[in-house]
Design brief:
Blueprint (H helix, E strand, L loop, with lengths): L2 H10 L5 H9 L4 H8 L10 E4 L9 H16 L3 H4 L3 E5 L5 H13 L5 E4 L5 H11 L3 E5 L8 E7 L8 H12 L12 H6 L3 E4 L1 H12 L5 H6 L6 E4 L5 H12 L4 E3 L25 H10 L3 E5 L6 E6 L5 E3 L2 H18 L7 E6 L5 H9 L2 E5 L3 H14 L3 E7 L3 E3 L9 H17 L4 H12 L1 E10 L5 H15 L3 E2 L2 E8 L4 E4 L4 E3 L8 E5 L4 E6 L5 E10 L2 H20 L1
Parallel strand pairs: 2-3, 2-4, 3-6, 7-8, 7-9, 12-13, 12-14
Antiparallel strand pairs: 1-5, 4-5, 9-10, 10-11, 14-15, 16-23, 17-18, 18-19, 18-21, 19-20, 21-22, 22-23
Keywords: Carbohydrate metabolism, Glucose metabolism, Isomerase, Magnesium, Metal-binding, Phosphoprotein
Catalytic activity: alpha-D-glucose 1-phosphate = alpha-D-glucose 6-phosphate
EC number: 5.4.2.2
């Protein structure tokens, strides 16, 4: 069908949701908008789906969400009845239609006799992951677009272990979603009926208390919190998202008495009125926190994104200004503290394991080598970190100590199986207390690591490809990169090229070896000076991401190398 055909189907549907019908009418004269909304269906993949909110087969609305929930329901219909009756935990963030999408999903599941456990109000993604494990449900649904702008929403599915649904099951669900001929015919059951049938259960404080108990246990040295942390001045902003209740309670429960919320951003508002991008990776997300921090002389500023799975931080410098830390820097100080504190306490396990994505800093690898801890590298996507945790538990061969991605995602204790900004906030505050006790800051802490292991810097850039032909453009660029076989960047030779799509590593001398990670559309180049460059299409957004990681003996020399490689990469892509 053409986009015009799809548009007519929606336009002619008599029972179309009134709000969507009005939006559809408003779009009538905008051919580009109509083409984008009706040409291609929402892409449902291993990470679920994410897109603009609006009418059409290519946008987030009750019908595309209903189709996704129907795909999960049809998959669960193939399970034995015991697993099917374990049900699905459902949470949602503060975005437009999130509550509606969450309950609509429950209504679809209920039509298949599948119980749902729906939070009474907004809750973080990591708490949804916890709820799946805590309630022993078979699956979980999180309605969120994470750190995307206000125009977006999304649908993520979690598996029985609390991690994002593994690839094999996700592929099956995708087939069921794609097999729905008419999303308007997806059956639902009214909520009142489902309540009478005991197929919807409302959850909240009963889960909160147990999740917060787990968060409190993340603290490695409670004595340090009692002696230093309780008097440390902190600023916390949830950026209008789900962290505003849970984050506040977690800090209070752990003993951080001198912290202040950015009150304007502690309001759960789908407009995200104080920020353009509710993303702690972006400096402007900290503008209000910095202003308040200067007023109160805060030691540490922390920000969580709307679904509270990503954490950003800024530390006060001697001149009173605040320095934002990168995701790699936060991960490095957290990791070093975890390993050192456990070693000092005689609790560092001999079979310790840390897991990171292949585009995250190699400084973490150096730290692990120092403490005799195994580093495991996985593809980008926290589900792969969760997978390693599960394998370690099944094989009884490693003890998980820490997992992270450079994109501001960290996990300390595996009672959650996704990145957890609430856990990370509590431990980062403890690390800040550790350095404060020595008259230092977190910034001083990362500088100490650089002096010990060398200076490490990284840069991530992205090229966006919006519109109906965006995916085709990205595919063409990745193909051209594979065909060009670059042998050097900025005058530095490429020693090895890892192509995770073909699962082959090709060395400079022409020899090859098999890569063991799953198939993925990623290219990674290892250079003669220890630099690495990676390229991959985003799994959730219409963009290609370019990563550079380099190191050197001084801060200035490393910064210059990073700049040189970025210019070379920009020219390479342009050519």
């Amino acid at each position: 069908m053409t986009w015009q055909d799809n548009y007519q189907v929606w336009k002619n549907y008599q029972d179309l949701d009134p709000a969507l019908a009005q939006e559809l009418a408003d779009m009538a004269g905008d051919q580009e908008a109509l083409e984008n909304a009706f040409t291609k269906p929402m892409v449902f993949g291993t990470a679920g789906m994410r897109g603009l909110i609006g009418p059409g087969i290519g946008e987030m609305n009750v019908y595309t969400v209903g189709a996704a929930a129907e795909g999960l329901a049809r998959f669960m219909d193939t399970l034995d009845d015991k697993d099917k009756q374990r049900g699905v935990a459902i949470s949602f963030d503060s975005r437009y239609h999130s509550r509606e999408f969450a309950h609509h999903s429950a209504h679809v599941l209920g039509a298949h006799g599948i119980p749902s456990f729906v939070f009474d109000d907004i809750r973080p993604t990591p708490e949804l992951s916890f709820a799946v494990r805590h309630l022993h449900t078979y699956a979980g649904i999180m309605i969120t677009a994470s750190h995307n702008p206000k125009q977006y929403n999304g649908f993520k599915i979690y598996g029985p272990d609390g991690g994002q649904m593994p690839p094999k099951a996700a592929d099956q669900i995708t087939e069921y979603v794609n097999g729905i001929d008419n999303m308007f015919t997806v059956k639902t059951v009214k909520e009142t009926t489902l309540r009478k049938q005991n197929l919807i259960h409302i959850i909240g404080e009963d889960v909160d208390e147990d999740y917060l108990a787990g968060v409190k246990a993340v603290s490695i040295n409670p004595k340090l919190v009692d002696e230093v942390g309780k008097d440390m001045t902190l600023i916390y902003t949830p950026l209008h998202g789900t962290g505003h209740i849970i984050g506040y309670r977690a800090l209070k429960d752990t003993g951080y008495n001198h912290f202040t919320m950015v009150k304007e951003q502690a309001i759960a508002d789908p407009e995200f009125p104080t920020v353009v991008h509710p993303n702690p990776e972006f400096p402007e997300a900290f503008n209000m926190a910095i202003k308040l921090g200067k007023k109160e002389g805060a030691d540490l500023l922390v920000a969580t994104d709307p679904d509270a799975d990503r954490l950003g931080a800024a530390v006060r410098m001697p001149n009173g200004e605040y320095q934002l830390m990168t995701g790699n820097q936060i991960a490095s100080v957290l990791l070093n503290y975890i390993l050192k504190a456990k070693q000092d306490a005689g609790k560092l396990p001999a079979d310790g394991m840390v897991v990171k994505s292949i585009v995250s800093t190699e400084l973490a690898t150096k730290i692990c080598e120092h403490y005799g801890v195994k580093m495991v590298n996985v593809l980008t996507g926290f589900k792969y970190i969760a997978e390693q945790i599960k394998l370690a538990e099944q094989n009884h061969d490693h003890t998980f100590l820490f997992g992270f991605e450079e994109s501001f995602g960290y996990l300390i204790n595996p009672f959650v199986r996704d990145k957890d900004a609430i856990q990370s906030t509590i431990l980062l505050a403890e690390v800040a207390a550790y350095y404060k006790q020595q008259g230092l800051t977190l910034y001083d802490g990362i500088q100490q690591l650089y002096k010990t292991y060398g200076y490490y810097k990284a840069k991530t850039t992205a090229k966006e490809f919006d519109g109906v032909d965006g995916a085709d453009k990205m595919a063409a660029i990745m193909k051209s990169l594979r065909d060009s076989h670059p042998t050097e960047f900025a005058g530095v030779k490429v020693e090895t090229t890892d192509d995770y799509q073909t699962q082959v590593a090709t060395h400079q001398d022409g020899s090859t070896e098999k890569l063991t990670l799953p198939v993925s559309n990623v290219l990674k180049y290892w250079l003669a000076d220890g630099t690495w460059i990676a390229v991959r299409p985003s799994g959730t957004e219409p963009k290609i991401k370019f990563y550079i990681g380099t190191n050197g003996k001084t801060d200035a020399a490393t910064a210059q190398k990073l700049d040189d490689f970025e210019k070379a990469l920009t020219q390479w892509v342009k050519d």
